[in-house]
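Lab meeting prep.
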Amino acid sequence: MSQVDYKEAGVDITKADAFVERIKKLVPTTFNDQVLQGIGGFAAVYKLNDQKYLASCTDGVGTKLKIGQHLDKHHGIGIDLVAMCVNDLLCVGARPLFFLDYMAFGKLDTRISEELIAGMVDGCRQSGMALIGGETAEMPGIYKDGEYDLAGFSVGELTPSEMFKEEAMSEGDVLIGLASSGFHSNGYSLLRKLVKDSETELLEQLLIPTQIYVETFMHLRQKFQSSILAAAHMTGGGIHNIPRMSENFDYTITSWPSVEEMAPVFKPMLQRMDLSQEELFRTFNMGVGLTVLVKKAHAEAVMTELKGKNIKAWMLGHITRGSGQIEMTDWKL
C-alpha cells in the first residue's frame, strides 16, 4: 500500500484554496453591478436584465490526460472536459446553453484532435449544449509531441427564481448523493502513481468518463421545483465542496455508500492506498459525483423518483445552522 498523499503527489489543495482567497480581493475590482456571483462559486452569474441571468464557468481535465495519452484513447477525455464544466453550471441553477474548447498540442495530430472533438460533441449532446467554437494551438517547446492540454468554457441561462438562494435552505433539509462513474477527473496526480503503465485494464477503468448529470438534475428540478435547494459538484477537494452551498450551515454526514456500492474502479485503487478516511474524502469524490440538497418533506419522494429511473443515489445526511463545517458521524467505509 502507498502512503503517498495528494500533496506529495504534487497537488497542494490547501495552497490552491489560499490562492483563491487571495485573488478574491483583486478580481472583484473588475466587477460591475451586473455580477451577482463571482469568484469562488461553482459558476459565475451575470445579470443580463431583470428576467434573465447568464452563468459561466471554465475547467480542464487535469492529469487524467496522461492516461488517455498513454493508452492512445481520447474520446472519453473530450467528454470529461464537457462534464467538468457543465456539472458546475447546474450548481447555480442554470440550464446549459453552449460550450467552447481550447486545445494545445506540441504538434497537432489530426486523428487525436478529431477524437477529442468527437468526445466533446458527445458530451455536449448529453448536456443539451451547442459546441459553438474553440481554439487549437501548436506549442512546440511547451508540450512534447503526443502531449496536449485542454480547457473548456460553458455558458448557461437562468431566471431570477431559478437561481439557488440560501434563504430557501432550512435546518433538517436532506443531502442526497448521486453516484459517480469513477474518480471522474480529480485526484489523478496521485492515482497515476499507484498504477503501472502495463496495467492496461485498470488504466482503462480509470479512463471512464466523468458522469454528466444534466438530464437527471433538470428532471428533478422540473418535477420537484423549489424543493431542490442547492447542489455541489464533487470535484477537487472532494466532500469539502458541499459547504460551498452555503457557509451559514453545517453539513452532517450520517452515512455514505460502501466501497462495494461505488463504481468498480474504487475498490482496487483504494486497496493500494494507506490514507486516512479524512484524506480520502478530501482528495476523491468517493463514489458521489453530485450532492443535491432537498427539502426534508420531499427527500423520500426524490429518492423514489431516482430509484424508478435506475439512478443510483443515497441519502447522505442533513444540514443545520452553522459556519460551513462538515461533521462525519461515527461511521467508516
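Slide two material, second protein:
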Amino acid sequence: MKAINLIKVFIASPGDIAAKRNEVEETIYRWNIENTDNTKVILMPIRWETNAIPTYVNNSSGQSVINKQIVENSDILLAIFGHKLGSPVDNYRSGTIAEIDYFYKNSKGEVGIFFLDEPVPQILAEEYIEVKKYRDSLEDKGFYGTYSKDNIRRFLTKKVNHLIEKAQNNLESKRFDLDPISYKTSSAINKKVIGTDEYFEDNLDIFDPIEFDNDERLLLIYAFMDENSIFSTDNSTYRKVVQWESDNNLRSYLSDRVFDVLEKLSKSGILKEEYDSSFDEYPSRYILISEDYKKFKRYFLKNEKKISVIMEKYKAPIQADPFSNLDESDLPF
C-alpha cells in the first residue's frame, strides 16, 4: 500500500461563477488522475457549501465560522473572480476577499487568484468596476492570473511541488537540527557532459527538438547573443528580452513566456536557482554557471547558421508602408 499525502485546495469565488467552481473541482480530479502515482499526492477540493458544518457560535458570523472550520485548515487557496466582487461581509467588500485575507494571514499555504477574461454584460458593468479595482490593488503583490483550465493545472503543479519541497526541507531540518536549507539546482550539463567540447556537442544537442523545446532553445540563443548568463526574476529580464526581440525584429514569442522557460530550464538542471536568503520562497535569479556558459558559447559560435534558421522562424511580419506606391501627383499638397 502506498503512502499518500493529502493536500486540501479551498476553492473561493463569488456566487456568480458557480460553473467555474465546478470546473476547477473537475480540474483537480483530473490532476489527481494524471499526477498522484508520480507525486504520491492527492488533492482534495474544499468548498464551503460541501465541507462547512452548520454550527452556532455566539457573537460570530457565518463567514468567521467558515474561515475557522475550513479556510484555515486548507493548504492551497484558489480564488476566482468573474464580473462580480460578491456581497460585503465582516467589514470586507466580499466574502471571497475575506477568505483570501484570512488565509493569507493565518495559513502558511499557497494562494492563487484568477480573473475571468470574458466580455462583461452591460447589466454588470458597474459591479465589474469593483472587480477591476480589486485586481489593480493586487498589482504590487503579483499573485494573480487569468483564469483558464490550463493555468489552473499549471498553478496546482507548481504549488504542489513547492509544498513537497517545503515538507522535505522541514523534515531535513528536524532530522539534523539545521536551519531550513535553500534547494539549488545542480548543473545537468556537468552531469551529462564531461570533458571536451566535442563530448558536449555529441551529448547535448540544443537543436534537437526532443532534447529542447522551442522556447528553451530560443532563450539559450538569447543568452548567447546578449552575452547574458544571469536572469533576474524581476522585470529587468523581461525588459531585456523585449529589447532583444525588438532589435532583431522578432515576434514576442520568448518575452510572452520567459519566466516559465526559466523555470523549465531550472527543473531540467540547465539553470541554477539562486536565493538572496534561505527564507525566500522563490529564487531571486537563475544562473547559467560560468563553465556551462562557455560551453554553450563555443557551441553556438560553431552553429551560427542554425541560429539564423531558428531566428528566421520568429521574425515579426514586415508592415507594409501605406504610402510606398503613392504617386507624388496624388498628394494634396
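Talking points for slide two:
The CA atoms of residues 61 and 90 lie 8 Å apart.
The chain is about 45% helix and 10% strand.
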